[in-house]
């Protein structure tokens, strides 16, 4: 019960202004009814959802690079259990996924508090009924986002709809009376996510900044869910959503022509649809914060990735712009002049010692991924039109002027799919979860998954390892038994 009690005891509501909510610490705990009483306090509690996400340190670089990048076979950070796929219930070497579990539920709890606090308020307290709906939609979009993470990482997302190994769903602010929930089916789990995302698509405003969720962010999450799930009709529906976003999103959401501008601007780049945002850099302490955002010290120590992605990266003109020389992550390493070449500086930046105030950014979604999704979805829905599916990929590449990229060619379906998978890896390297799912979805000319090709024959795993175990503390805390994901006991 210990970890679940911490979730209840640690439940705080952030009440800060809209401008500085990401730089303020929670001031106090209050009864929910007293916290949300008008439009301003409703805005404040929604702002608190972002603050909770900012403080969830394992939802940044640890998740995207160390865990999912290793799991996809792109690199091996000191024999981590995700590269080896040895994560099991009670495996003490895997202390990452239980922390991710806690972080996700902290964000869900903050979103639930916002929804519960705002929903009963009289519409007359808001500038308009639509303004109230938009705040609820903002919180529901975030809850859908976090529940999608639960589906993808802790449920058997690849099972049929009637599989009992879905998520533990919580839609109320946490208390001891409502924590003991059972698992939904996989189909029910997907539907809970889609309900929130659909509401957000209907009531959220358009993209303005990567610091906030938007209608377009809800749309791309919806499309990614369908692309990863791959049930009958999912690819065609996802393609319609992607094409709609590309046709109707504000013109400010667009690719940077100069890739150096993208990573220098980080969350302030208009290419970034949503990012994990640090806040006012002047308010950040000189230690601690940047550790969460530098994608772990491993990106400094490990400058050679596995063979296939290393060859692809080094052959691409973007390589010279995304790697470089950097100091070690701690001050003693800076003092000793310890540098490494070919560090992935697009993510690592410089570490606490050299660059504690750098814009350490988790790129949840960038515009180029729309082109890649469109290319893949066209290929899967109309496999005979190779040129048509290749066009979005080459349009994306042509958007760059620094560096200039040559068009990709393909004459067979296998060459087309290989080109799309390769572009996923090179374009989004270690930025989000896309490469992990693509490594399962795409197959080589030998008919094996790219995951098997990237990991080689020395790593033994089955489909069971496509998700993580429910943490042991959660299993033990429940009065009614919760079934562990098969093969992960």
Description:
With 489 residues, the chain is mainly alpha-helical. Among the domains are: 2-204 and 469-477, Serine Threonine Protein Phosphatase 5, Tetratricopeptide repeat (Alpha Horseshoe); 278-360, no CATH class. It is 50% helix and 4% strand. The chain contains 24 helices and four strands. It has helices at 2-9, 32-35, 39-55, 61-71, 81-84, 96-118, 129-154, 186-203, 215-229, 234-248, 259-265, 289-293, 298-301, 307-314, 319-322, 331-335, 345-348, 351-354, 368-381, 386-399, 413-428, 434-441, 450-455, 472-477, and strands spanning 272-276, 324-327, 339-343, 362-366. The strands form two sheets. The protein has a two-stranded antiparallel ribbon. A two-stranded antiparallel ribbon has the order 2-3. The protein is globular. The model is unreliable at 1-30 and 284-291 (pLDDT under 50).
List the SSEs and their pairings.
Blueprint (H helix, E strand, L loop, with lengths): L1 H8 L22 H4 L3 H17 L5 H11 L9 H4 L11 H23 L10 H26 L31 H18 L11 H15 L4 H15 L10 H7 L6 E5 L12 H5 L4 H4 L5 H8 L4 H4 L1 E4 L3 H5 L3 E5 L1 H4 L2 H4 L7 E5 L1 H14 L4 H14 L13 H16 L5 H8 L8 H6 L16 H6 L12
Antiparallel strand pairs: 1-4, 2-3
Helix pairs in contact: 3-6, 3-7, 6-7, 7-8, 8-9, 9-10, 10-19, 19-20, 19-21, 20-21, 21-22
Uncertain runs are 1-30, 284-291
SS class: mainly alpha
Percentage of helical residues?
40-55%
How big is the Rg? Answer: 22 Å
Q: How do you describe this structure in short?
A:
The chain is mostly helical. It has 24 helices and 4 strands. Helix 8 (about 185-205) packs antiparallel against helix 9 and helix 19 (about 370-380) runs antiparallel to helix 20 (about 385-400).
